[in-house]
Amino acid sequence: GDKETETEVLLLEHDVPHQPFSQAVLACLPPPTFSISRGLFKDQAGREDLRALSICSVDPPGCTDIDDALHCKPLDNGNTEVGVHIADVSYFIRPGNALDEEASLRGTTVYLCEKNNDNLKLIRIKKCATTMLYISHDVLNKVIFVDFLSYDVPRLWVSVTLSGHREPRRHLLSSGLGLDQASLTYAEAQLMMDDAGRKDPVTSSLRGLNSLAKILKQRRIQNGALTLASPEVRFHMDSETHDPIDLQTKELKETNSMVEEFMLLANISVAERIVDEFPECALLRSHPAPPPSNYDILVKAAKSKNIEIQVDSAKALAESLDRAAVPGAPPYLNTLLRILATRCMMQAIYFCSSMDPDTHHYGLATAIYTHFTLPIRR
């Protein structure tokens, strides 16, 4: 069938809002000629000047929605400082205006394969391949990250700064104005870290981040965090028709895990902070533990290969999956079991802190969690 028609039917069938944005919404956006000048910092009382830090972003290839960045630097007292910097979209979206109200109505991100093609921004806007704020995201990306490949363009961040010895412990939430010293892909960042001849500040920062990320990941796993395989694929599009012609499984590198660990740490840190500040109305994300019956299909499948899976707790499940191996079995058997375990999980939910005293996130094995690092979805 016709791609446009089928896309329309798909969105309508699932009640995905995809109508054109109103003039009232568009009027809330800054003009296309707007740019963040260096003088802006003087007008932002309380916004820290982060421009001297070796801040860099690490994203998938072809990513233009660069909304997070990291830095790492040693401190004079022997501790290490880590900064997780998230684009301050709230500077442009004022509470209660038409754009804010539209965002609250759309609320959920919906991905279609066209999203991966940068030439299909109009389709993404019209068809809402990413719902919620994608039209403003396209514009805001140009505003917040004007000419993001240049090293001297100021950007507005909301930052979590953590410090400690070996493991970041103390955290500080602040707003700042910073420079992205490098905009890297995961592969580029990995090559920089692996090149022993590189001694520049950005590479040193990446190596420090990677070392700390390994410690953080090991600690999460020891606490019972689940590592469940859910292969991510990337669509390859025809250059003329923009139809998907192939898909490729995403190759994960150390840098993928590095970024993930600090996004998780920032989200946990911010969750703790907002509960302290707003104990009755903090927006949190919970992941309930599945009932034992949810695991029946996983336990049965594993038993058919003489593998025992323990499901008494997240930690027991994680350890069982780590041990799940059969001599002579296909190498992907463990991956298949982890994919099956994913199907046994409950749906994670957003909730207000006053609604439920149980804030635990089962899959991440953390007492509290929120989504600070997704500014457009926020």
UniProtKB/TrEMBL annotation:
GO biological process, one term: nuclear mRNA surveillance of mRNA 3'-end processing
One annotated Gene Ontology cellular component of this protein: cytoplasmic exosome (RNase complex)
Pfam families from the UniProt entry: RNB
Domain RNB as annotated: residue spans: 47-378
InterPro entries registered for this protein in UniProt: NA-bd_OB-fold, RNase_II/R, RNR_Ribonuclease
Annotated GO MF terms: 3'-5'-RNA exonuclease activity; endonuclease activity; RNA binding
Protein name per Swiss-Prot or TrEMBL: DIS3 exosome endoribonuclease and 3'-5' exoribonuclease
Organism of derivation: Petromyzon marinus
